[in-house]
Amino acid sequence: MGRPWMSGLVRAQVEALHGSGARFALCVTGGGARAVSWLIGLPGASRSVLEIQIPYSPEALDAYLGHRVDNAVAPETAADMARTAYRRAQRLAQAGDTAAGIGCTAGIATDRPKRGEHRCHVAVCSGSGVTTYSLRFVKGLRDRDGEDDLVSRLVLRAAAEGVGAPSSVELALDYGDVLEVTLENAAVLVEALSRGCARSAAVTAAGRIFADRPVAGGVLAGSFDPLHAGHEGLAVTAARLLGQPVTFELSMTNVDKPALDLAEVRRRISQFAGKYDVVVTRATRFSDKARLFPGCTFVVGWDTAVRLVSPQYYEGDPSRMTRALNEIRSFECRFLVAGRAGPRRFHAPSEIEAPPGFESMFSPIPASDFRRDVSSTEIRVAAGSP
Question: Residues of CATH 3.90.950.20 domain(s) within the chain?
């Protein structure tokens, strides 16, 4: 049943799901037929699949969710389907089993022209919250069978995420296809980053969380303990000079300090709520950040720029410094440098001595455009915090 057109990677993914030791319920409508066939077409399905529901008509979907659905092909509907499937999985699973619910709703190619976008939304709900995958297809590139294949692969990927199984299936997206991943809460964000399921997570000022969302323009990295007027003023000035938006970046890991725990990540990103977007990563060094944000300009202070161009911060090895700067440059990244007040005087960006050949990577922010003699450390000391 469906096995003749099951690729090796798809088969490996289904076998990983059946062998995960977790149990899940699945609900699909409008697409994802191949996922159903793949899941029950291999031996061992009863070890993982608790039930599969296909409420295809609007009335059937309303009955499954227990309320009227205004827009069947929407991320909110997929999330509701996943939550309902999760509740059913919890009731059907044995005590102690890891349970998950997957919901899929799609509007794909049919036997008549479709006006709107061809798209699907796949959500997975587990004990840590809901993750929703929203995919918009290049219209006309694939027939219904091709679009359903892609929807079904996304269902398997979501199921693997929900039960903690290894993910091996390839989505084979076209250049014009757009995949957006929305995380429900900070706990899911931290877990996804820690497990390597996401490389970054953007938290919008409105509180929505997107995994691996592209970032363009400037990136202002910091610990933001606390976020203060100096950070905010620097971001505003940099955005004006660059003519592009500036995104704040908080790394959960630091070379000299312990990794941030969930409570601390929540506390720090809460400072941005209602004001700015912030992207959370595990990128410790700027070479790591450059891989995540190619083409971006990193907005830094004088003290950070000094460390970037001083061999002593590379264990005294100038060749390591050169390799790091070359790697950053290979991703077409550069630095916009602000001055910094020291114990005795103000250090201007012009004091930075970039190694020969790397001078063009560092551009100054004149003190006449921006100067704030304040630091997070001073604020914490004044507040009596460590």
Answer: 3-184
